[in-house]
Amino acid sequence: MRQFARITLPLAGLNFVNQASRTMIATLGPLLALEFALSASELGLLAAMFFAAYAAAQLPVGLAIDLWGARRVQAVLALVAATGFLLCALATGTFGLALGRVVTGFGISAGLIAMLKVNTQWYPRDRVAGMTGYGVLVGSFGSIAATVPVALLVPEIGWRGIFGLLTAMSVGVSLWIWISVPDRGPGAASPPKRRLGQEIGEFGRIFRHPAFLRFAPSVALLSALNFTYQGLWAGPWLRDVGQQAEAARALLLLCYAAGLMVGSAGTGQLASLLQRRGHHPMLVPWLAMGGIALVQVLLIAQPPRGMVALGLVWFAFALCGAAGPSGYAAIGQRFGAELAGRVATAINVTMLVLVFLLQNAIGWILDLWPTGADGGWNTAGYGWALAMTLALQAVAGWRMLRPE
């Protein structure tokens, strides 16, 4: 655990900030929509711009981490994230808030990637998924902090104060990474001196690789579903379909975050255990994909009522969605350690493009029905949105399950 505390934990600290930033929009989304008079599609676009910037940074960031190491890249990016949070705190309109979200998206863009890279360098192959799961577990505490704690803090310091708090945390994490994380793994040689064009060209080999083409779409969609709802639409769904008040929504989003925590640690450790026993590295992600599909069927056919039922269903949704990083680790094993950063970012950019498209598409679907007197959206729209994502899962799953 000393190695984990020195190597993985500081990088997980930026994941904590990342998770808090994403989840608190689901908590604050209805409030921001009212304050800035945002429609569903405008709120979806505001949330999606964060993921668009996140996606745009992926390939350059993956290359930078492979060439210059996670320590240097992450320390700088944490300061970029701090700048984005500060812009949000000072925003006087939707443009300033959107700009801050874009800058923040760039700043937290390497959270999972840097951790996967370092874990690949420092741990045996069959422990990478498990140690990454622990790191994601630490990050998922940010999701917890962004639910009930944020709801309790907003009346005291306002949403601007929340962004100011995230600014200070990002600066602190940057310093922690710089001091604690080594530049390279034990015995690792410096990257070979090659032309930048050759290094960039490795992305083409990754995107054309049969294993990437087979598994990456399903793995990316699994994480994208999690981020799409955790990052925005779970909160409005709980208001409009679940018919829950603000305090109850915050508590249910806490249940969501708890599912993410349990899934982050549990699925990673289970994937490592099963792989050591000879099972396919993708077994746990396969099971999770089936589980999240069943949850969506339930949400379409018979949306639950009552706090306990709602908490259990969204806990299960998050638990299954948290298996995404174990899929990243499984795909990464098909490539060399020197490409770990680029393989992870290739999957991540696919996932984040999906998040951007899904968050916008759900907003467009909801806007097809008139809003209610309280500003909420029609429950039928949520059902059609879930049907859309379920159909996408079926297509990606069919491709994944075809024989090699």
Please tally the helical runs, counting DSSP H or I stretches of 4 or more residues: 15
For the report, how would you describe the main beta sheet?
Answer: none
Sequence of secondary-structure elements? HHHHHHHHHHHHHHH
Radius of gyration: 20 Å
**Tell me, what's the shape?**
globular
Q: Which percent range describes the beta-strand content?
A: under 5%
Q: What structural category arises from helix and sheet content?
A: mainly alpha
Number of E-state strands: 0
- Unreliable segments (pLDDT under 50, ≥5 consecutive)? none
Give a brief outline of the structure.
The chain is mainly alpha-helical.
What does this structure look like?
The protein is mainly α and 404 residues long. 82% of the residues lie in helices and 0% in strands. The chain has 15 helices and no strands. Helix 14 packs antiparallel against helix 15. The model has no long low-confidence stretch (mean pLDDT 83).
Which terms summarize this structure?
404 residues; mainly alpha
Helix and strand arrangement:
Elements: H1 2-35, H2 40-68, H3 70-90, H4 94-107, H5 111-122, H6 125-145, H7 148-180, H8 196-208, H9 210-240, H10 246-276, H11 283-301, H12 307-321, H13 324-332, H14 340-366, H15 379-401
Helix pairs in contact: 1-5, 1-6, 1-7, 1-9, 2-3, 2-4, 2-14, 3-4, 3-5, 3-7, 5-6, 5-14, 6-10, 6-13, 9-10, 9-12, 9-13, 9-14, 9-15, 10-12, 11-12, 11-15, 13-14, 14-15
